[in-house]
Every structure is written in structure tokens, then in C-alpha cells.
User: What shape does this take?
Amino acid sequence: MIRSLIVWTLVVIAVPLALVRPFFGILAYLGFSHSRIADFVWTGYSVENYGLFIACTTLVGYGVLEIRKSPPRIRGLKGLFAFWLWLVLSSLFAYNVSLAYSKVWQYSTILLITCLIAAMGNSENRIKNLLLTLGGSLGFLGVKGAIDLVLTGGKFRMEGPGGMTADTNEYALAMGLGLVILLGLAPSQQGLKKWLLRMSGVCCGMVVIGTRSRSGLLGLVLALVLLTLYSRRKLIGMVGLTLATIAFLLFAPSGSIDRYKTIQGAEENDPSAMARIAVWHAATKMIKARPIFGVGLRNFELAMPLYSSLEPRAPHNAFIALASEAGLPSCLLFLNFILGASLRMFMLRRRLRRYEHLQNLATYCKVIHIALIVYLVPNCFINRQDMDLMYHLVGVGAGLGIVAEIELYKLRRRTAEETEEIEEEGEDEEHLLEGVAPA
Assistant: This one.
């Protein structure tokens, strides 16, 4: 009951504030969506459709008060729009069109929020607040999960609170991305905030171990390696990575260790892995039969009996799922907008880190670049191609890209003006010298 009152109070405060301050509304929406705090309320007292309330008032507030200052942005999102349009088109040829369009609606709502993030993320301070909100929301889950892990001694496999993080594999993926955001942002903060980010990032890593997810472990290892490679103090980062490895070997729950030992030889001995490979073979037949438009979004299990005698189940691979449900072009477009966004952040970071006063922007670029790369690896073994967190990071990246380009343009212009002044001073000196006769 008390939890319900707290959550309802937060919603009641957030809805009117979202109307008059749309950027606060988008932060509130992200906070509620990724912390999943409503899922910790007992059934019967739960807060239904809180996201819809906050999103609608934010959209109205944006259209009335914010749109002139923060106009919609296409740059940085063209690949995402192309992907969405292909999903709409492919759904016309689905086995069950109603199922396909229910999934298109989900993608559409994610795209709308992503566009709002890109539009209103138009300053360094706003980009920082967006990333801190995402990181803080995931950090909340990480801290709570780490406490549960310690109290239970890791005897039970940890599961997520709900939504897109309900399953253990999806929960591990979200916590891995949370670790990247939190540990990546920490160097740009000061004092207590820096240590809170680091602590909650470590907690997210502990939760990944607690889920016993093998795909999550792969993402976690990649995240730690990339954060070390991109660290300014690589030696300290390598020492930290070594200590983390030792701590894992000494203190990781036995259930997690036993689960990870099955990675080697999983194709021959692990029933779960063997079932996935068999489903992938069925998906390959779907792709060969319908390579352009696929069988339709959410139609994989419905169509599977036509291509295999196996019991219908999800493909557990985001790329195979997209190729079989919406055709090979959808998979290519999916990879294109993610890798394109990550590459843009990588290139911008290289340019920004040359200037001392732009180091924070360079850090934000690094965080998004690494997070998008880490997102792809676990998705080779789970189908979370619709994970809203990834799309929201792409939206932040689109806004950040424009902010960074503006700052770099200002620097180029300032440099050009200074060069012109020096040239003009040189010309004045030449004119003066022309009137001086040699001795």
C-alpha cells in the first residue's frame, strides 16, 4: 500500500509538470520506464498506464511550449526511420496482419519517444541529464538486485522486475548497458556523484552475474574490456579489470559458475543451445522462402509449423528474428542505424577530445558508442530487437551529434576570425613599413 501511494504521488506530480516543462516530462518517462518502479507495487494497487499519461502530457507540452525552441530532428535518425518504414511495409505481407501491426504500433511508440529525446536533447546540460536519468534508473535496479544477491547468497537465478526486462537474459542485457552508462559517465562527474555512479555500475555488473545469463556474461565482458580500452588511465583500468576477474572467480555464486561452464560444448550437450540451433535452421527456411518481406512481425511462432516439426518457440537471435519476420532488408537496416549511430559517436569523440572544454561531450559520445556495440553481442542469443533502451540511446546520440557539431563549428569559426585578425594586423604592419626609407 505504501509503495503504491509513493508511485501514485510521483505520477501525479510528473503529469502536470510534463505539460508545462516537457523536458522534465521526458526525463520522468525515462525514469519510470527503465527503473520499472511500478512493478514493485503489489497487484491490486498497481499504477496502470502511467507511461501513457506522462508521454501524452509531454507530447502536448512539447507541441505547445517547446517545439519552436527544440524543433524535430531528422539528422541522426534517418536510418531508424528507414527501418521503421520497412517494418510497416513488410507487415502488409504478413501471415497474420493484425499481429504484425500490433508490433508495428509498439515500434511506433518507441520511435515517437526517441524523436522527442533527439529534439529536446539540444544542449550539453540536457544530454547529461538524459544519460544520468537512464543510468540512474538502471542503477536503481542494479543496487536493489545486488542487495538481493548478497542477502540470498546467489542461490536463486535473478529475474527482472517486468516489461522488457522480465526475462533473465533481457535483464542481464539491460544491466550490462547500465554498467556502461554508469561507469562511462563517472569520470565526468565530481565528488560523491562520481562514487555513486561507480558503485551502482558495479552493482549492475553483480546483477548480470546473478542472472546466470551466458549472453549477459558475454556482453559484460565486452563492456568491461571496451571501457578499459577507452579509459584515459589504461593501466589503472587494466588493474581494475584484473581485480574484477579475481573477485568473480572467488565470490561468484556457484550456480552462475556452473551455468557458465556449459558455454563450452553447448552445441552438443546443452538442451537449450541445441533447441536454439534447431529453431535457427527452421528460421533459415523461412528466410529462403520469403527473403524480402518475411512471415510478418510476431508471426514467427505462428508460421514455424509450416517450416519445421519442432514445437514453436522464439528464435533467440535478434538478427535471425528480424530477417525471418520482416525480411533480410529489415535486418540490414537494423544493423545500419545502430552501427551508423555508434560510428558517428566514435568519430565525434575523436574530434571533441582534442579540446579541453569539450571533454564532457567526448565522454557522452564514448558512452553511447560503447553501449550500442555491447547491445549487439547478447542479441546474437536473444531476440530483443525491440528493446526501448537501445532506441532511446540512439535518440540521445542524435541530439548529442548536433550539439557537438555546433560546438565544433563555433571553434572553427572562432579560429577563422582569429586568423583573419592576424592577417589584417600583418597587412597593417606591411603598409607602415612601406613608408619607412632604408637607412
The chain has two domains: 1-69, 73-410. The chain has a mean pLDDT of 89. Residues 149 and 437 are 88 Å apart (CA to CA).
